[in-house]
Every structure is written in structure tokens, then in C-alpha cells.
Prior knowledge:
By secondary structure, the protein is mainly β. It contains three helices and ten strands; from the N terminus they run αββαβββββαβββ.
Amino acid sequence: MIVIERTKENIMAFKKYEAIGRGGERSLTPKVSIWAKSGLVNFNRAAAEKCNLGDYAYLLLYFDKDINRIGFAFTNTEGEKGRRRINKISGRNTCSVRGFLNHCGVDFDENKKYDLIFDKENGLYVIQL
């Protein structure tokens, strides 16, 4: 057994891991989850910050069936057709999208997480299914 004495000099190249957020983990990568059974879409904290969700009340949904992607846009316009209210409760940003998922034929039998990226060409935040 080799014992290495811990000194300031021999640990300086390492960075100490310190858990952050609820449950000890918080993703710094913008993610969107689709929750099974409920048909809810959830934006993690990093995604909410990237999309400035605090500034918006509604979600607009788009679907590209050719490449199987969901697009998200955000608005405050009350009369915007197809808008869905963003529920902001206890730091969560969720929206019920069950009808949209069913209409587009998106499988949501199990919980799944997706990376959220910005599609400059279309001006939408998107997830690749």
C-alpha cells in the first residue's frame, strides 16, 4: 500500500468537486426533458437561463417531421395562436404539450432528456428527438 501525504503542492492541479443544486447535481448544459405519462416538457435551469424564460409567459411549438426535431419559441402575446402557458413553480419551467406530442406522433412512453440548441437559421431553440 502506497500512502501519499497530502500537501498543497501535490493537489494544486486538481479542482475540488463541490455538488451544486437540488439533489447535489445541477446540469450546466441546457436540457429539455419530456416526461412520460404527463406529457410535460421541462426546461432545466441552464435552458431557462439560455432562453430567458423569466421574460416570457408562453411557449410556441414547432415540429420538423423530416428530421424529427421540436422547435421552441417564446412570447408574451396573449392572442398568439397555439400558445401554451409556461408554468413557473419552485424553480421549474414546465409546459403541458401532450396534445402536440400526440398530434406529431412523438413517442413519450418514457422520460427523456435532450440537449437544447439554438437554430440560427430558423430562429428557434430546438431539440433533436
